[in-house]
Amino acid sequence: MEEVLASVQWADEILVVDSFSTDDTVTIARKYTDRILEHEYENSAAQKNWTIPQATHNWIFLIDADERVTPELKEEIQKVLGGELQHKGYWVHRQNYFMGRHVKHGGMAGDRVIRLFTREARYENRKVHAEVIIDGTVGEMKGKLKHNSYKSLGHYLNKIHRYTLWSAMDKDVSTGRIGLFHLIVKPAFKFFQFYILKRGFLDGFVGLVLASLSAYTILLRYIQMWEIRRANSGT
Q1: Residue 190, class by beta-carbon neighbours within 10 Å (0-12 exposed, 13-18 middle, 19+ buried)?
Q2: pLDDT 10s digits, 108-126
Q3: Using an 8 Å Cβ cutoff, are 115 and 63 in contact?
Q4: DSSP alpha helices (H): ranges in the chain?
């Protein structure tokens, strides 16, 4: 928490939204801002949509606790906001780290998110992997956002059950009958895509682990979806 707040000290306002944490998050946050709000966490998009209107400035740079603004990105944001604004939002590319290593290939390569936008913007109504809906054109930043996506295998596994459940709920309506295609073909292709097509093998052991976990995530999503349907049908 301290590192992310230190990376945005240059902002005109720092607004922290805490989900009733029981650790020292609030104590740390008070070193950097007096604007600390508490709101029950439902999912990422819902939390961010609640947060955005609480800001007092027109332009918002939204950042998660596991992200860091690099000096290059800071300078670029300040330059954009200090000039003639041509867009209503901006894509930011992320440098993703897994198990302490910078991942340059595979499924994490080319990752980007819209994080600088006007306060009228809102996130999609999705439980996971929602993006900001911008009413206007979207530009692109050259500076990078450092993202410590998963510190370890344990960190990944602790989060994956919740994320795959949300993904299953999001995709349930658009998914037909679950069969071998979903349980075998799709996970296998995901591994092939991330490890071979997107050259995850160039990241060595970490690339292999990420491709394997990505395939497992797809499998787990459809197992979760099958359980949801079974529970809803009462069988």
Answers
A1: buried
A2: 888 999 999 999 999 999 9
A3: yes
A4: 2-6, 25-29, 44-51, 71-81, 153-171, 180, 186-192, 204-233
136 neighbors 87 (Cβ within 8 angstroms):
yes
Chain segment 209-232, per-residue pLDDT in tens = 999 999 999 999 999 999 999 998
Answer yes or no: are the C-beta atoms of 119 and 52 closer than 8 Å: yes
Compute the distance between CA of residue 91 and CA of residue 84 in angstroms, rounded to an integer.
17
Residue-wise pLDDT for 87-105, tens only, equals 999 999 999 999 889 999 9
CATH number for the 2-150 domain, one of 1.25.40.10, 3.30.230.10, 3.90.550.10, 3.30.70.1450? 3.90.550.10
Strand, helix or coil for residue 163: helix
Residue 105: CB partners within 8 Å, gap ≥ 6? 198, 199, 200, 201, 202, 203, 207
Cα gap 26→103, rounded to integer Å? 31
